[in-house]
Amino acid sequence: MKNQVKPSNLRRKQIMTTAIKLFKSQGYANTSVENIMQEVGIAKGSFYYYFKAKEDILDAMVERVVAKRCQQCRNIAIRGDVAIMPKVWQILVRPDQEQGNFAGSISLPDNRQLQERINVETINRLAPILAEVIAEGQAEGILQVAQPLETSQFLLAASQFMLDSDLFVRNQQEQSRCLQALYEMIERTLGLDIRRP
Fold this sequence. Notes:
Elements: H1 8-26, H2 33-40, H3 44-50, H4 54-77, H5 84-93, H6 97-105, H7 112-139, H8 148-162, H9 172-189
Helix pairs in contact: 1-2, 4-7, 5-7, 7-8, 8-9
């Protein structure tokens, strides 16, 4: 094994980058801590200095992807120059480039656990942001929703699951119809008052 001393944050990043590469090529379930250590060229003690287990790498990866998406959605939510429904649509459907690239690159069946962790964490952290936008729409008299948080959770789950290109292979026309149906469902679910100008 190579025994090079690297600054702490660089070594941690190297371990994560290597783990991601292995998860992409052979799947999360089939990648062991030993595989990661061997690929990085570090001893067991070095790995466990940064991560207690393989699951900690998973947590760090999920945190990185979801935190970025949450920040983007929070920025959308606070914009005063964007109407309520475009905000809702952007939070639910606007693809985050990193999350999209990352999710697409881990599409092996053995990575379903990783994909599900990202989806669950995304729903848990984005739902309060979306609920705030819905509450803003209620205050303006545009939307009518009895449970903004729970409604947000269902809408996020539906959009993430139905738009997952690894689960549902669609051509461009089918994807367009799916997006239109999702938009109509969102409008109905949120009680959009379409009579307002």
